[in-house]
Amino acid sequence: MAKHPASVVAGEIIEVVSLAELCRSCGVQSEWVVELVDEGILEPQGSDPSAWRFSAVSITRTRVAWRLQHDLGVNRAGIALALNLLDERQELHVHLQRLERSLDDTSSDSDF
Amino acid sequence: MDYKDYYEVLGLERTATQDEIKRAYRKLARKYHPDVNKESGAESKFKEAGEAYEVLKDPEKRAAYDQLGANWQAGQDFQPPPGWDQGFEYSSQGPGDESAFSDFFENLFGQGRSSQAGRQTRHEFHAHGQDHHAKIMIDLKDAYEGATRAISLRAPEVDASGHVSVRDRSIKVKIPKGITEGQHIRLAGQGTPGVGQGQAGDLYLEIHFQPDPTFSVDGRDVYINLPITPWEAALGGKVKCPTPAGAVDLKVPENARTGQKLRLKGRGIPGKTAGDLYAVLQIAVPPARTAQDREFYERMSRDMNFNPRAKLGG
């Protein structure tokens, strides 16, 4: 286990990725990504695969999709459903937190 | 090294059938899958179940495991009896690597495992190094101002002879201003080194914000619950509103309501199109603590003629 000295690295914010970049970054095959697009799980801009541009969120979605299939044996329709429900749950979670916080703010006034 | 009770992990008797083992594993895997279950500890339970299943689903491994005897307790210090090959050197891998099993597993079964790193098999013919992914937590302020963050990474490396070792390294990363939750920063060449002429892989950092006590974030928009007094609400006027970039004056309209959202355009997370900041008004009612306070409230009660329950028929 070698300790390497710290060096400053400047990264780039990813706005969009191509099909090849998406496949490479997630370690998956392009055929499989095409299946995800067919299922509406990923929605790239552009008409044909060589021109596809995926939003950066697609990286996370692809990785989650892969794990759902690999770890749980979920099929494509199931992945689409699970991702939609997970998104929805996340939105509700954010909403709930905001509401809980506003309730906390209001109730703390009566603690005096 | 701690003994692992794989039957206990799956909630099964030692006499469980292969079908029962499969069902128990599937159920736990769905429940604790880290993409599905965000509670802390879910990921380790998922891994534990995966490790238990890896052994018990395979009749040969299960028989070997059973042969250790039923008298071991989970967590008990354990040394494999003579006859177990301990020639395989293994260090546990960093968080985020789903293929990391316990020392217990690796000591008993590790030598049979392929050193290929799980799912990320290379399908291309060129020897481009693997890309890596890591999550990084930053403060909301970092998205407003940009920052440099030191992060430490542990990554398994496979050498030419197929041995796996763990490399620890620390890098300092520039967090660009204007980054938002869920975005990725690509650090070119910071993944696995390439083989031969191949380029090194890249490192992808997925950005997450630390929970902030004051602000919440939705994309580029930022929200704050802003308490105001009843008179500020009724009369309107300027109040100080904190933003991650410092306090600003906010104009409260007359007869403002609790829950009313006031937008501060462009005061959200900066970017080509900067987000907005929303102040959600919360009218704070001053407690009646002194006789004077009470008298004041009583006068309001006489003079204001206000019934908030009028619409309820109250």
Largest interface pair: A-B, 44 and 62 residues
CATH topology of chain A: Multidrug-efflux Transporter Regulator, Chain: A, Domain 2
Given this structure, which CATH class of chain A is correct?
Mainly Alpha
Shape of chain B: elongated
Strand % of chain B is: 15-25%
User: What is the percent of helical residues of chain B?
Assistant: 10-25%
Which CATH-level-2 architecture of chain A? Orthogonal Bundle
Report the major sheet of chain A: 2 strands, antiparallel
Instruction: Write down the overall geometry of chain A.
Output: globular
Mean pLDDT figure of chain B? 83
The span between the termini of chain B is 69 Å
> What value does the average pLDDT of chain A take?
85
How would you characterize the largest beta sheet of chain B?
Answer: 4 strands, mixed
Please mark out the parts of chain B with pLDDT under 50 across 5 or more consecutive residues, or reply none.
85-98, 112-124
Tell me the domain tally of chain A. 1
Question: Could you list some keywords that capture this structure?
Answer:
heterodimer; A: 112 residues; mainly alpha; Multidrug-efflux Transporter Regulator, Chain: A, Domain 2; two-stranded antiparallel sheet; 4 helices; 4 strands; 60% helix; 8% strand; B: 314 residues; alpha+beta; four-stranded mixed sheet; three-stranded mixed sheet; 11 strands; 24% helix
